[in-house]
Amino acid sequence: MLTTDFVAGAPNWIDLGSPDTGQAAGFYTSVLGWDFASAGPGAGGYGFFRKDGATVAALGPLTEEGVSSAWTVYFQSPDADATAKSVEKGGGTVRVAPSDVMDAGRMGCFTDPGGAEFAVWQPAGVGGLERTSEEGALCWVEAHVPDPTVEYAFYRGVFGWRAVDMEVPGLVYKVLSTAEGDQQEAAFGGMAPLLEGDRPCWIPYFCVGDPDATVVAAEVGGGSARMAPADVAGVGRIAWIEDPSGAVFAVIRPDRPAAAA
After folding, report:
1. Residue 35 and residue 240: Cα distance in Å, rounded?
2. Which of 51, 65, 204, 261 is an S-S bond match for 132, by CB 3.0 to 4.6 Å?
3. Burial 12-34 (b: 16+ CB within 10 A, else e)
4. For the segment 210-253, what is each residue's pLDDT rounded down to a tens digit?
């Protein structure tokens, strides 16, 4: 389960790169009930999504030509520079070399061997998200990759992750856990084969009370349903949504209510 007691390899931050941060802030405010606050005049347009005053995600402008709007999942690292070396050793790519973000922490951005982008956050002044696994907050992350066996071996080498294969109709789904703690309790995400026509990526899941109503709000706000709401036995009701700039995320109402972090 995703909590704010972050350990090495656990998701600890998430942000959205958007070509129109004003539009994105308005969209997610109306769809997920968030507020948006700028990080300040020297932050280059970066800011924080908050739920009841607690940071649940972040938003920044896209600065590179030809880069698509997308959510980036960050994983906890005790040493971002060492992680960068492990990424390269495992066949991944360092897109942005680790660097300090003022006194908040140290970050690096990478691409795994299959093409999915991710990042790491080495905390200093900012430990990570302030709420997870409750309504309006991140509760799961999911990799969609060309070859889950190969990609899992890469991430195991980088973060020491553990995995359990779960049979679902038509595919094998890997449930991912951090290296520490009880494996079931330490589960934070999954890995699945890439669907034809999609690009490799990490998808964030946010808990909501009513996925159907969330999809309607997204469509009213200029987004679309990438996958219509559907019940998944033993998991919950899930929908995939594409925001007005094309960034994809998922929402879920778990079968068992998400516990507060």
Report:
1. 22
2. 261
3. bbbbbbbbebeebbebbeebbeb
4. 999 999 999 999 999 999 999 988 889 999 999 999 999 999 99
